[in-house]
Write the C-alpha coordinates for this entry.
Amino acid sequence: MNKNILYKIYSCVFVGICLVPSVFMPFVKSDTSTEKRKLSTAPEIKTKEGKINFEYFNEFETYFSEHFAFRQQFVTLDGYVKSKLFGTSPNDDVITGKDGWLYYGEAVNDFLNINTLTDRGINNIKNNLEIINNYCNENNVKFIFTIAPNKNSVYPEHMPSRYVPADDTGNYERLSEILDENFPYCNMKEVILSADASIPLYHKKDTHWNNLGAYTGHMALMNMLEKEVCPSGNWTVRNDRMGDLTEMIYPAGKADDTQVYSDYQYTYKYTGRFKALDDMTINTVCEGKTGNLLMFRDSYGEAILPFMAECFGNAEFSRIVPYRLDRIGGENADTLIIEIVERNMSDLQKYAPLMPAPVVNSLEFKKLTVCPDITINQQTSGNYIHIFGELDNNFFTSDNAKIFITANGVTYRAFNAFEDKLLDRDGETSDNGFSLYIPADSGVIPEDITVISINDDGTAVSSQ
Protein backbone atom coordinates (compact mmCIF):
# COMPACT_ATOMS: atom_id res chain seq x y z
CA MET A 1 0.00 0.00 0.00
CA ASN A 2 1.27 3.47 -0.91
CA LYS A 3 2.89 5.25 2.07
CA ASN A 4 0.98 8.44 1.30
CA ILE A 5 -2.29 6.56 1.67
CA LEU A 6 -1.13 5.16 5.03
CA TYR A 7 -0.19 8.64 6.21
CA LYS A 8 -3.60 9.95 5.16
CA ILE A 9 -5.41 7.10 6.94
CA TYR A 10 -3.31 7.69 10.07
CA SER A 11 -4.00 11.44 9.97
CA CYS A 12 -7.72 10.89 9.50
CA VAL A 13 -7.87 8.42 12.40
CA PHE A 14 -5.88 10.78 14.63
CA VAL A 15 -8.06 13.80 13.80
CA GLY A 16 -11.18 11.66 14.22
CA ILE A 17 -10.13 10.57 17.71
CA CYS A 18 -9.40 14.20 18.63
CA LEU A 19 -12.85 15.23 17.41
CA VAL A 20 -14.71 12.57 19.41
CA PRO A 21 -15.01 14.66 22.63
CA SER A 22 -16.38 17.63 20.66
CA VAL A 23 -18.66 15.78 18.26
CA PHE A 24 -20.28 13.65 20.95
CA MET A 25 -20.49 16.45 23.53
CA PRO A 26 -24.16 17.30 22.80
CA PHE A 27 -25.14 13.63 23.02
CA VAL A 28 -22.99 12.24 25.84
CA LYS A 29 -23.32 14.12 29.11
CA SER A 30 -20.53 13.83 31.67
CA ASP A 31 -21.56 12.59 35.09
CA THR A 32 -20.73 15.56 37.31
CA SER A 33 -21.94 13.91 40.52
CA THR A 34 -18.44 12.64 41.27
CA GLU A 35 -16.93 16.12 41.17
CA LYS A 36 -16.01 17.73 44.50
CA ARG A 37 -16.63 21.20 43.13
CA LYS A 38 -19.18 23.21 41.17
CA LEU A 39 -18.56 23.01 37.44
CA SER A 40 -18.88 25.98 35.11
CA THR A 41 -21.98 26.67 33.05
CA ALA A 42 -22.14 27.40 29.33
CA PRO A 43 -21.01 30.99 28.70
CA GLU A 44 -23.20 33.64 27.12
CA ILE A 45 -22.15 35.85 24.21
CA LYS A 46 -23.60 38.86 25.99
CA THR A 47 -23.33 39.85 29.65
CA LYS A 48 -26.33 40.48 31.91
CA GLU A 49 -25.99 44.16 31.03
CA GLY A 50 -26.44 43.35 27.32
CA LYS A 51 -22.82 44.08 26.40
CA ILE A 52 -20.43 41.86 24.46
CA ASN A 53 -18.82 39.26 26.70
CA PHE A 54 -15.12 39.65 25.88
CA GLU A 55 -14.32 36.71 28.19
CA TYR A 56 -16.50 34.36 26.14
CA PHE A 57 -13.68 32.32 24.62
CA ASN A 58 -11.84 31.93 27.93
CA GLU A 59 -15.07 30.90 29.62
CA PHE A 60 -15.90 28.48 26.80
CA GLU A 61 -12.45 26.89 27.10
CA THR A 62 -13.11 26.26 30.79
CA TYR A 63 -16.62 24.99 30.09
CA PHE A 64 -15.42 22.61 27.37
CA SER A 65 -12.60 21.22 29.52
CA GLU A 66 -15.15 20.33 32.22
CA HIS A 67 -17.95 18.97 30.03
CA PHE A 68 -16.50 17.29 26.93
CA ALA A 69 -17.84 13.86 26.05
CA PHE A 70 -16.34 10.83 27.82
CA ARG A 71 -14.52 13.17 30.20
CA GLN A 72 -14.79 10.76 33.14
CA GLN A 73 -13.39 7.93 31.01
CA PHE A 74 -10.41 10.00 29.83
CA VAL A 75 -9.71 11.30 33.35
CA THR A 76 -9.89 7.74 34.67
CA LEU A 77 -7.50 6.48 31.99
CA ASP A 78 -5.08 9.29 32.81
CA GLY A 79 -5.38 8.43 36.51
CA TYR A 80 -4.60 4.76 35.96
CA VAL A 81 -1.62 5.52 33.72
CA LYS A 82 -0.07 7.96 36.17
CA SER A 83 -0.80 5.97 39.33
CA LYS A 84 -0.06 2.46 38.06
CA LEU A 85 2.92 3.21 35.83
CA PHE A 86 4.52 6.21 37.50
CA GLY A 87 3.22 6.05 41.08
CA THR A 88 1.91 9.62 40.94
CA SER A 89 -1.52 11.17 41.17
CA PRO A 90 -3.19 13.30 38.47
CA ASN A 91 -4.95 15.28 41.22
CA ASP A 92 -3.09 17.37 43.80
CA ASP A 93 -5.79 16.56 46.36
CA VAL A 94 -5.07 12.82 46.17
CA ILE A 95 -1.87 10.99 47.14
CA THR A 96 -1.33 7.62 45.52
CA GLY A 97 0.08 5.35 48.21
CA LYS A 98 1.37 1.81 48.34
CA ASP A 99 -0.73 -1.31 47.80
CA GLY A 100 -3.54 0.67 46.16
CA TRP A 101 -4.11 2.97 49.14
CA LEU A 102 -5.18 6.56 48.49
CA TYR A 103 -4.77 9.50 50.87
CA TYR A 104 -6.21 13.01 51.02
CA GLY A 105 -3.64 15.63 50.02
CA GLU A 106 -4.82 18.21 52.55
CA ALA A 107 -3.67 15.94 55.38
CA VAL A 108 -0.06 15.76 54.21
CA ASN A 109 1.19 18.63 56.40
CA ASP A 110 -0.07 16.85 59.50
CA PHE A 111 1.66 13.66 58.36
CA LEU A 112 4.95 15.44 57.69
CA ASN A 113 4.67 17.60 60.85
CA ILE A 114 5.23 20.77 58.83
CA ASN A 115 3.36 24.08 58.86
CA THR A 116 2.10 23.13 62.30
CA LEU A 117 0.24 25.48 64.60
CA THR A 118 2.27 27.83 66.75
CA ASP A 119 2.47 27.28 70.49
CA ARG A 120 0.10 30.22 70.91
CA GLY A 121 -2.32 28.65 68.44
CA ILE A 122 -2.36 25.37 70.38
CA ASN A 123 -2.95 27.25 73.63
CA ASN A 124 -5.72 29.27 71.98
CA ILE A 125 -7.53 26.02 71.18
CA LYS A 126 -7.06 24.79 74.73
CA ASN A 127 -8.45 28.05 76.15
CA ASN A 128 -11.47 27.89 73.84
CA LEU A 129 -12.24 24.29 74.79
CA GLU A 130 -12.00 25.19 78.48
CA ILE A 131 -14.59 27.95 78.00
CA ILE A 132 -16.93 25.46 76.35
CA ASN A 133 -16.37 22.88 79.08
CA ASN A 134 -17.05 25.42 81.84
CA TYR A 135 -20.23 26.52 80.08
CA CYS A 136 -21.40 22.90 79.91
CA ASN A 137 -20.64 22.35 83.60
CA GLU A 138 -22.65 25.44 84.54
CA ASN A 139 -25.61 24.09 82.57
CA ASN A 140 -25.33 20.48 83.82
CA VAL A 141 -24.48 19.24 80.34
CA LYS A 142 -22.17 16.32 79.70
CA PHE A 143 -19.47 17.30 77.23
CA ILE A 144 -16.95 15.32 75.17
CA PHE A 145 -14.45 16.70 72.68
CA THR A 146 -12.75 14.41 70.18
CA ILE A 147 -10.54 14.62 67.11
CA ALA A 148 -10.94 12.08 64.30
CA PRO A 149 -7.40 11.24 63.17
CA ASN A 150 -6.35 11.57 59.55
CA LYS A 151 -6.05 8.26 57.74
CA ASN A 152 -2.31 8.60 57.26
CA SER A 153 -1.91 9.19 60.99
CA VAL A 154 -3.40 5.74 61.63
CA TYR A 155 -2.06 3.87 58.60
CA PRO A 156 1.24 5.59 57.70
CA GLU A 157 2.79 2.40 56.32
CA HIS A 158 0.95 2.78 53.00
CA MET A 159 2.11 6.35 52.38
CA PRO A 160 4.66 6.77 49.54
CA SER A 161 8.24 6.37 50.73
CA ARG A 162 9.13 9.88 49.53
CA TYR A 163 6.95 11.37 52.29
CA VAL A 164 9.23 11.44 55.34
CA PRO A 165 7.81 13.10 58.49
CA ALA A 166 9.92 15.76 60.18
CA ASP A 167 11.37 14.95 63.57
CA ASP A 168 8.78 17.05 65.38
CA THR A 169 5.55 16.69 67.33
CA GLY A 170 2.29 17.10 65.42
CA ASN A 171 -0.71 19.26 66.32
CA TYR A 172 -2.75 16.27 67.52
CA GLU A 173 -0.17 15.18 70.08
CA ARG A 174 0.66 18.73 71.17
CA LEU A 175 -2.95 19.54 72.01
CA SER A 176 -3.52 16.14 73.64
CA GLU A 177 -0.53 16.71 75.91
CA ILE A 178 -1.66 20.07 77.29
CA LEU A 179 -5.31 19.22 77.92
CA ASP A 180 -5.86 18.63 81.63
CA GLU A 181 -6.14 14.95 82.53
CA ASN A 182 -9.63 15.62 83.87
CA PHE A 183 -10.76 17.38 80.69
CA PRO A 184 -13.54 15.42 78.87
CA TYR A 185 -11.36 14.56 75.90
CA CYS A 186 -11.55 11.34 73.93
CA ASN A 187 -8.20 10.66 72.27
CA MET A 188 -9.61 8.95 69.21
CA LYS A 189 -6.19 8.26 67.73
CA GLU A 190 -5.29 6.12 70.73
CA VAL A 191 -8.68 4.43 70.54
CA ILE A 192 -8.26 3.49 66.86
CA LEU A 193 -4.63 2.44 67.17
CA SER A 194 -5.34 0.22 70.16
CA ALA A 195 -8.42 -1.43 68.64
CA ASP A 196 -8.23 -5.18 68.07
CA ALA A 197 -9.50 -5.36 64.49
CA SER A 198 -8.79 -7.98 61.85
CA ILE A 199 -9.38 -5.49 59.04
CA PRO A 200 -8.38 -1.81 58.67
CA LEU A 201 -10.78 0.63 60.33
CA TYR A 202 -10.39 3.16 57.51
CA HIS A 203 -11.32 2.82 53.86
CA LYS A 204 -8.49 2.01 51.49
CA LYS A 205 -9.67 4.45 48.80
CA ASP A 206 -11.65 6.96 50.85
CA THR A 207 -10.74 9.74 53.27
CA HIS A 208 -12.79 8.39 56.17
CA TRP A 209 -13.09 5.56 58.61
CA ASN A 210 -15.39 2.70 57.66
CA ASN A 211 -18.45 1.62 59.62
CA LEU A 212 -16.40 -0.58 61.93
CA GLY A 213 -14.00 2.27 62.63
CA ALA A 214 -16.94 4.58 63.35
CA TYR A 215 -18.43 1.96 65.67
CA THR A 216 -15.09 1.73 67.51
CA GLY A 217 -15.22 5.50 68.01
CA HIS A 218 -18.86 5.29 69.07
CA MET A 219 -18.05 2.77 71.81
CA ALA A 220 -15.30 5.01 73.18
CA LEU A 221 -17.63 8.03 73.32
CA MET A 222 -20.47 6.12 74.94
CA ASN A 223 -18.12 4.61 77.53
CA MET A 224 -17.00 8.12 78.48
CA LEU A 225 -20.65 9.14 78.80
CA GLU A 226 -21.32 5.99 80.84
CA LYS A 227 -24.19 5.09 78.53
CA GLU A 228 -25.05 1.78 76.89
CA VAL A 229 -23.58 1.39 73.41
CA CYS A 230 -25.55 0.57 70.29
CA PRO A 231 -25.68 -3.20 69.63
CA SER A 232 -23.24 -4.13 66.89
CA GLY A 233 -25.08 -7.04 65.30
CA ASN A 234 -23.13 -9.31 62.99
CA TRP A 235 -20.57 -7.73 60.68
CA THR A 236 -20.09 -8.63 57.03
CA VAL A 237 -17.49 -7.30 54.60
CA ARG A 238 -18.28 -6.33 51.02
CA ASN A 239 -16.16 -4.62 48.37
CA ASP A 240 -18.91 -2.38 47.02
CA ARG A 241 -18.03 1.16 48.05
CA MET A 242 -17.01 3.99 45.73
CA GLY A 243 -14.42 5.89 47.77
CA ASP A 244 -14.40 9.67 47.58
CA LEU A 245 -10.70 9.64 46.62
CA THR A 246 -11.40 7.08 43.90
CA GLU A 247 -14.04 9.40 42.46
CA MET A 248 -11.51 12.21 42.27
CA ILE A 249 -8.93 10.38 40.13
CA TYR A 250 -10.90 7.44 38.68
CA PRO A 251 -14.39 8.96 38.18
CA ALA A 252 -15.39 6.17 35.81
CA GLY A 253 -13.89 3.48 37.99
CA LYS A 254 -15.85 0.77 39.74
CA ALA A 255 -17.03 0.67 43.35
CA ASP A 256 -14.59 -1.83 44.85
CA ASP A 257 -13.55 -0.31 48.18
CA THR A 258 -14.14 -2.35 51.32
CA GLN A 259 -17.07 -1.53 53.58
CA VAL A 260 -18.21 -3.29 56.74
CA TYR A 261 -21.95 -3.74 57.31
CA SER A 262 -23.92 -4.59 60.43
CA ASP A 263 -27.16 -6.54 60.29
CA TYR A 264 -28.50 -4.75 63.37
CA GLN A 265 -31.97 -3.32 62.73
CA TYR A 266 -31.99 0.31 63.84
CA THR A 267 -35.09 1.71 65.49
CA TYR A 268 -34.34 5.44 65.38
CA LYS A 269 -36.22 7.66 62.95
CA TYR A 270 -35.40 10.90 61.19
CA THR A 271 -37.54 13.92 61.95
CA GLY A 272 -37.98 16.99 59.81
CA ARG A 273 -36.54 17.17 56.35
CA PHE A 274 -33.84 14.59 55.67
CA LYS A 275 -32.03 14.17 52.35
CA ALA A 276 -28.67 12.58 53.07
CA LEU A 277 -26.11 12.08 55.82
CA ASP A 278 -24.22 15.18 54.67
CA ASP A 279 -27.18 17.48 55.47
CA MET A 280 -26.20 20.52 57.52
CA THR A 281 -28.62 19.51 60.29
CA ILE A 282 -30.11 16.08 60.98
CA ASN A 283 -32.59 15.35 63.76
CA THR A 284 -33.53 11.90 65.05
CA VAL A 285 -35.74 10.31 67.69
CA CYS A 286 -35.50 6.84 69.17
CA GLU A 287 -38.45 5.48 71.11
CA GLY A 288 -37.63 4.01 74.50
CA LYS A 289 -34.28 5.79 74.78
CA THR A 290 -33.46 8.75 77.03
CA GLY A 291 -31.18 11.73 76.73
CA ASN A 292 -30.94 14.64 74.34
CA LEU A 293 -27.76 14.80 72.25
CA LEU A 294 -26.32 17.73 70.33
CA MET A 295 -23.35 16.68 68.23
CA PHE A 296 -21.32 19.05 66.11
CA ARG A 297 -19.50 16.99 63.53
CA ASP A 298 -17.92 16.97 60.09
CA SER A 299 -17.91 14.29 57.39
CA TYR A 300 -16.48 11.76 59.86
CA GLY A 301 -19.76 12.05 61.72
CA GLU A 302 -21.74 10.47 58.88
CA ALA A 303 -20.71 6.89 59.63
CA ILE A 304 -21.03 7.31 63.40
CA LEU A 305 -24.47 8.98 63.24
CA PRO A 306 -26.63 5.80 63.19
CA PHE A 307 -24.91 4.38 66.27
CA MET A 308 -25.30 7.63 68.24
CA ALA A 309 -28.90 8.18 67.08
CA GLU A 310 -29.84 4.72 68.33
CA CYS A 311 -28.74 5.59 71.88
CA PHE A 312 -30.57 8.87 72.54
CA GLY A 313 -34.24 9.73 72.76
CA ASN A 314 -33.55 12.89 70.75
CA ALA A 315 -30.44 13.81 68.81
CA GLU A 316 -29.33 16.64 66.57
CA PHE A 317 -26.29 16.30 64.35
CA SER A 318 -25.04 19.61 63.01
CA ARG A 319 -22.36 20.82 60.60
CA ILE A 320 -23.23 24.46 61.23
CA VAL A 321 -20.38 26.83 62.13
CA PRO A 322 -20.18 28.69 64.45
CA TYR A 323 -21.39 26.11 66.93
CA ARG A 324 -24.80 26.98 68.42
CA LEU A 325 -23.92 26.27 72.04
CA ASP A 326 -26.82 28.36 73.32
CA ARG A 327 -28.95 25.31 72.47
CA ILE A 328 -27.74 23.24 75.40
CA GLY A 329 -28.97 23.05 78.97
CA GLY A 330 -32.47 23.36 80.44
CA GLU A 331 -35.00 21.76 78.10
CA ASN A 332 -32.41 21.59 75.34
CA ALA A 333 -29.56 19.12 74.89
CA ASP A 334 -28.14 17.49 78.01
CA THR A 335 -25.17 16.01 76.14
CA LEU A 336 -22.76 17.83 73.84
CA ILE A 337 -20.17 16.19 71.59
CA ILE A 338 -17.81 18.14 69.36
CA GLU A 339 -15.96 16.12 66.72
CA ILE A 340 -13.49 17.57 64.25
CA VAL A 341 -11.01 15.90 61.92
CA GLU A 342 -7.30 16.30 62.61
CA ARG A 343 -6.53 18.27 59.46
CA ASN A 344 -9.05 20.97 60.45
CA MET A 345 -7.85 21.49 64.02
CA SER A 346 -6.87 25.10 63.25
CA ASP A 347 -10.59 25.92 62.85
CA LEU A 348 -10.90 25.60 66.63
CA GLN A 349 -9.32 29.04 66.95
CA LYS A 350 -11.76 30.50 64.44
CA TYR A 351 -15.42 31.41 64.76
CA ALA A 352 -16.41 31.83 68.41
CA PRO A 353 -19.31 29.54 69.37
CA LEU A 354 -22.68 31.26 69.68
CA MET A 355 -23.21 31.38 73.44
CA PRO A 356 -23.36 34.09 76.12
CA ALA A 357 -19.83 35.05 77.08
CA PRO A 358 -18.95 34.04 80.65
CA VAL A 359 -18.92 36.91 83.15
CA VAL A 360 -15.73 37.31 85.18
CA ASN A 361 -15.87 38.91 88.63
CA SER A 362 -12.24 39.98 88.89
CA LEU A 363 -8.95 39.91 86.98
CA GLU A 364 -5.59 39.07 88.49
CA PHE A 365 -2.26 40.17 87.06
CA LYS A 366 1.11 41.56 88.19
CA LYS A 367 1.83 44.32 85.70
CA LEU A 368 -0.42 46.32 83.36
CA THR A 369 0.61 48.21 80.23
CA VAL A 370 -1.54 50.06 77.69
CA CYS A 371 -1.60 49.50 73.92
CA PRO A 372 -4.45 51.59 72.48
CA ASP A 373 -3.97 51.07 68.75
CA ILE A 374 -6.52 48.35 68.02
CA THR A 375 -9.82 48.18 66.12
CA ILE A 376 -12.82 46.69 67.92
CA ASN A 377 -15.71 45.52 65.76
CA GLN A 378 -19.25 44.85 66.83
CA GLN A 379 -22.47 43.82 65.13
CA THR A 380 -25.88 42.56 66.17
CA SER A 381 -26.38 38.82 65.81
CA GLY A 382 -29.86 37.72 66.86
CA ASN A 383 -30.18 38.23 70.63
CA TYR A 384 -26.49 39.00 70.95
CA ILE A 385 -23.96 41.69 70.25
CA HIS A 386 -20.96 40.13 68.59
CA ILE A 387 -17.67 41.79 69.52
CA PHE A 388 -14.55 40.71 67.66
CA GLY A 389 -11.22 41.86 66.32
CA GLU A 390 -7.50 41.23 66.24
CA LEU A 391 -4.91 42.32 68.78
CA ASP A 392 -1.44 43.63 68.10
CA ASN A 393 1.50 41.39 68.97
CA ASN A 394 2.27 43.80 71.82
CA PHE A 395 -0.68 42.28 73.70
CA PHE A 396 1.15 38.99 74.01
CA THR A 397 4.20 38.52 76.21
CA SER A 398 3.92 34.73 76.29
CA ASP A 399 2.49 31.88 74.21
CA ASN A 400 -0.57 31.55 76.45
CA ALA A 401 -2.93 34.44 77.01
CA LYS A 402 -6.55 34.80 78.06
CA ILE A 403 -8.54 37.69 76.58
CA PHE A 404 -11.26 39.66 78.36
CA ILE A 405 -13.68 42.38 77.33
CA THR A 406 -15.01 45.00 79.73
CA ALA A 407 -18.21 46.80 78.67
CA ASN A 408 -20.52 48.94 80.84
CA GLY A 409 -18.65 47.86 83.96
CA VAL A 410 -19.03 44.12 83.24
CA THR A 411 -16.07 41.93 82.31
CA TYR A 412 -16.49 38.95 79.96
CA ARG A 413 -14.15 36.15 78.91
CA ALA A 414 -13.57 36.13 75.15
CA PHE A 415 -12.70 33.25 72.87
CA ASN A 416 -9.22 33.32 71.35
CA ALA A 417 -10.86 33.23 67.94
CA PHE A 418 -10.07 34.98 64.67
CA GLU A 419 -13.16 35.84 62.62
CA ASP A 420 -11.50 35.82 59.19
CA LYS A 421 -14.70 36.17 57.16
CA LEU A 422 -16.17 39.00 59.24
CA LEU A 423 -12.84 40.84 59.03
CA ASP A 424 -12.81 40.49 55.22
CA ARG A 425 -9.76 38.23 55.41
CA ASP A 426 -11.36 34.99 54.32
CA GLY A 427 -8.95 32.07 54.49
CA GLU A 428 -6.34 33.87 56.57
CA THR A 429 -5.25 32.70 60.01
CA SER A 430 -4.14 34.62 63.06
CA ASP A 431 -3.22 33.72 66.63
CA ASN A 432 -4.28 37.17 67.84
CA GLY A 433 -8.03 37.10 67.32
CA PHE A 434 -10.72 37.63 69.94
CA SER A 435 -14.46 37.07 69.67
CA LEU A 436 -17.46 36.80 71.99
CA TYR A 437 -21.21 37.28 72.19
CA ILE A 438 -22.91 39.33 74.92
CA PRO A 439 -26.65 39.98 75.44
CA ALA A 440 -28.08 42.49 72.99
CA ASP A 441 -29.79 44.41 75.78
CA SER A 442 -26.46 45.28 77.43
CA GLY A 443 -26.42 48.61 75.60
CA VAL A 444 -22.76 48.38 74.66
CA ILE A 445 -21.18 51.06 72.48
CA PRO A 446 -17.68 50.81 70.98
CA GLU A 447 -16.30 53.67 73.09
CA ASP A 448 -17.15 51.76 76.28
CA ILE A 449 -15.28 48.58 75.33
CA THR A 450 -11.90 47.72 76.80
CA VAL A 451 -9.88 44.71 75.68
CA ILE A 452 -7.31 43.21 78.02
CA SER A 453 -5.04 40.23 77.60
CA ILE A 454 -3.59 38.46 80.62
CA ASN A 455 -0.56 36.31 79.85
CA ASP A 456 0.49 33.30 81.89
CA ASP A 457 3.64 35.17 82.96
CA GLY A 458 1.40 37.49 84.97
CA THR A 459 1.62 40.54 82.66
CA ALA A 460 -1.46 42.23 81.26
CA VAL A 461 -1.97 44.56 78.29
CA SER A 462 -5.06 46.77 77.96
CA SER A 463 -6.51 48.79 75.10
CA GLN A 464 -7.08 51.77 77.43
Notes: Residues 229 and 380 are 42 Å apart (CA to CA). DSSP finds eleven helices and 20 strands in the chain. The two ends are 93 Å apart (CA to CA). The chain has three domains: 3-69, 105-349, 359-462.
